């Protein structure tokens, strides 16, 4: 009977490997470093190749399209200077006095009529008084609201209405008047 002695093991070598087959084992520090450098170099080269492909237009016909075209001469720009003319004689100065009449200006103040959309402060934006509208500006009806302040809260509403036809409202100074989807409001009294 003969006995076989197992082969001496090398450092970093596993005779069974991962699957039980003989395969090298990356156990050494130096081998890991070499492997990292190799994969890093491959990644860097791949990156440069990708950037090169990305910066081109990606067409394989790029060189073929311009192969039969001859270069045309470049356009030339010529700049010429004109000689300065002799000094002209000065023209006589003519003065004409014109009296301008100022245009009549409208006095600023609250308007007597306004659009059917918006929020107005009575006494500042619009005059106090009774206003009339022809009704809604569309099919949805005309909404108006008198309010104590511009807060938009329910408790500030003095009066409001939805009109399907013509309507009137009397506004006092200091109130806020809000109108939506109405035709123009005109001061009637």
Question: What's a quick, concise take on this entry?
Answer:
This protein is an alpha+beta fold and 189 residues long.
Which keywords apply here?
189 residues; alpha+beta
Global Rg: 46 Å
What is the approximate shape?
flat
Structural class: alpha+beta
Question: Hey, roughly how much beta strand do the residues contain?
Answer: 15-25%
Counted by DSSP, the helix tally is: 2
Q: Give the termini separation.
A: 134 Å
Q: What letter string, H or E per element, gives the SSE order?
A: EEHHEEEEEEEE
Give the low-pLDDT segments: 18-23
Count of beta strands: 10
Estimate the mean pLDDT confidence: 79
Sheet with the most strands?
4 strands, antiparallel
Strand order of the largest sheet: 3-10-5-8
- Helical content (DSSP H or I, runs of 4+): 10-25%
Structure description:
This protein is of the alpha+beta class and 189 residues long. Helices cover 16% and strands 22% of the residues. It is built from 2 helices and 10 strands; from the N terminus they run ββααββββββββ. It has helices at 29-55, 62-65, and strands spanning 13-14, 23-24, 113-114, 118-121, 129-133, 142-147, 157-163, 167-171, 176-180, 185-187. The strands form 3 sheets. Strands 3-10-5-8 form a 4-stranded antiparallel beta sheet, with no helix packed on it. β1 and β2 form a beta hairpin. The protein is flat. The N and C termini lie far apart (134 Å). Residues 18-23 have low confidence and may be disordered.
């Amino acid at each position: 009977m003969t006995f076989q002695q197992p082969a001496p093991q090398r450092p970093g070598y596993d005779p069974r490997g991962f699957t039980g087959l003989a395969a090298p084992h990356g156990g050494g520090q130096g081998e890991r470093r070499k492997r990292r450098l190799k994969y890093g170099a491959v990644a860097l080269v791949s990156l440069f190749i990708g950037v090169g492909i990305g910066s081109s237009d990606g067409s394989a016909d790029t060189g073929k399209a311009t192969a039969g075209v001859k270069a045309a001469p470049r356009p030339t720009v010529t700049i010429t200077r004109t000689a300065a003319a002799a000094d002209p004689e000065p023209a006589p100065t003519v003065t004409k006095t014109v009296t301008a009449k100022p245009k009549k200006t409208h006095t600023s103040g609250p308007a007597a009529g306004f659009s059917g959309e918006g929020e107005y402060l009575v006494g500042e934006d619009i005059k106090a008084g009774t206003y009339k509208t022809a009704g809604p500006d569309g099919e949805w009806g005309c909404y108006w609201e008198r309010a104590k302040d511009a807060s938009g809260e329910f408790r500030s509403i003095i009066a409001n209405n939805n009109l399907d036809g013509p309507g009137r409202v009397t506004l006092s100074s200091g109130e806020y008047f809000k109108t939506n989807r109405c035709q123009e409001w005109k001061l009637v009294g």
